[in-house]
Specification:
Blueprint (H helix, E strand, L loop, with lengths): L13 E5 L6 H12 L2 E4 H9 L3 H8 L1 H14 L6 E4 L8 H10 E7 L2 H8 L13 H19 L2 E4 L5 H12 L4
Parallel strand pairs: 1-3, 1-4, 2-3, 4-5
Bound molecules: shikimate-3-phosphate.
């Protein structure tokens, strides 16, 4: 008798990018989604569109806690999506419930960087409320020290993104994902 259905086809999962502000989640996410033929979703952009306000305005008018709630709601809304590269905001890891949803939805990929690399990318940026005012490098270092252990805790795969071109780094990310995708 013929054997039936012994090899179940694996359901293509999402790739969830976590990492500090300005590490390249959006740029690299777009690149790898194109290479893999996955859909690209950016949580910040999704929230801005839904709220019809930019992130700075949301922080200013409603506060960070409200923004974290919006992140949580959007992750729940995305729970049925598959074959997506999801670029998250750098602080998404602060909410355990949000992270529990993301862990169920796919592979958590941590884009690891250095304070110097981050500073080069966002040193002049005005759109990130948590980095405004005072000494930017100091703010980056302080927040990174708080968050690195949390990124590491959730990471299923880690890739150093502080060196190389976007194209080279995207290639290393796809290699690191290996047969998980
Ligand atoms: C934040 C990171 C930002 C954005 C918001 C808060 C954070 O996203 O979600 O400004 O807490 O680290 P990027 O990581 O895309 O800059």
């Amino acid at each position: 008798m013929a054997k039936v259905g012994l090899t179940m086809k694996r359901r293509k999962t999402n790739i969830v990018l976590i990492g500090f502000m300005g590490c390249g989640k959006t740029t690299l996410g777009k690149k790898i989604s194109t290479r893999l033929g996955y859909k690209f979703i950016d949580t910040d952009k999704y929230i801005e569109k839904k709220e019809n306000k930019n992130i700075s305005k949301i922080f200013e008018n409603d506060g960070e806690e409200y923004f974290r709630q919006l992140e949580r709601n959007m992750v729940m809304e995305l729970s049925e999506e598959r074959k997506c590269v999801i670029a998250t905001g750098g602080g998404i890891i602060k909410d355990a419930e949000t992270m529990a949803y993301l862990k169920k939805s796919g592979i958590i990929l941590y884009l690891k960087s250095t304070a110097e690399h981050i500073y080069r990318n966002v040193g002049n940026d005005k759109s990130r409320p948590l980095l405004q005012g005072g000494n930017k490098m100091e703010k980056i270092r302080t927040l990174m020290a708080e968050r690195i252990p949390i990124y590491e805790k959730y990471a299923m795969v880690t890739v150093d993104v502080s060196r190389g071109t976007v194209s080279q780094t995207a290639k290393r990310i796809i290699e690191a994902l290996g047969d998980r995708i």
